[in-house]
Give the backbone structure.
Amino acid sequence: MTVFVTGGAGFIGANFVFHMLNTYPGYRIVCLDKLTYAGNLSTLSPVMDNPNFRFAKIDICDREAIYKLFEEEKPDIVVNFAAESHVDRSIENPEIFLQTNILGTQVLMDACRKYGIQRYHQVSTDEVYGDLPLDRPDLFFTETTPIHTSSPYSSSKAGADLLVMAYNRTYELPVTISRCSNNYGPYHFPEKLIPLMIANALADKPLPVYGEGLNVRDWLYVEDHCRAIDLIIHNGKVGEVYNVGGHNEMKNIDIVKLICKELGKPESLITYVTDRKGHDMRYAIDPTKIHNELGWLPETKFADGIKKTIKWYLDNKEWWETIISGEYQNYYEKMYGNRAEV
Ligand code: NAD
Ligand code: TYD
């Protein structure tokens, strides 16, 4: 069995590469990644010499290169993680989001049609459902919740999801889609909430909380997401969407305070800054379908997962210090330099 993992040098893709190589020693795993600012080849160094692993530096929008790799490797399964993934960047520059997230998905699926595959799996997000109000804790996203996006990022992911379903209906491409809530864990790029707060707290820098910090996200430990995708590509029904998440709702401000506590840093580092434009209030997944059909449940509780994650960032400073010492500094200055304190 040969599995293509696109975006495998990023946060979730890399964790998925490790998960698959550990779980299926007989599988060949081929990682395709453009190595954008978010892709990091050093993350994959532990598996680079594994004879069952190959890395190919490829843009999923590059049709010629993608077709060539399909001809060479003849994948059975394609799991598409490759994407521009940061909402704040999508607000600054939507175009690359549309290119990679929609047109890149199209190129991959065209290759799947041309060369034939057993399964194309699209890694999507709960953000395609928009947000839920804070005063309705009884509401959750199910697979039938209407698509109702807020940001250029979530719109590009929703566009891709619609295209994936269209390729199933029109060309009978054997597809599945997973829509997962916010992940956290090792190798999370330091522009995202949890690693950004850990890195800033360790440097005694301000912790920039958007708005009042009351927005709620449903956090899932990354390994639980990888197990869900593993189950879906092997046992999930073609043409189906599966929501992945696990009743782990937390307010942003509570997470930031928890990180301060775990690191022994004062809450006085917390700085309330101008809110994100179009900021979604609450995400919350109803995972009944994946639980009933595939037996999936999250295994890591947030209280344990956040401790493991903080320990990983303490033990692997070189990984993220290298990132934040480079081009990332320009990004940080641009994003946070003009963000007034409120
Ligand atoms: P990430 O930004 O950490 O990694 C994305 C990877 O894709 C990087 O390695 C990057 O180099 C690569 N990439 C970007 N453009 C590419 C292109 N044109 N061709 C080839 N490779 C390209 O993202 P992540 O957090 O690991 O997210 C992975 C996927 O999961 C995304 O599709 C995202 O929408 C989805 N998702 C993420 C979360 C989350 O909380 N992080 C939650 C739900 C769904
Ligand atoms: P993020 O990690 O960007 O994920 P997403 O927007 O996809 O949910 O942000 C998580 C939450 O944290 C979101 O409500 C925005 C908020 N946030 C901050 O308050 N400050 C920050 O510096 C960042 C990056 C995010």
Remarks:
- The mean pLDDT is 97.
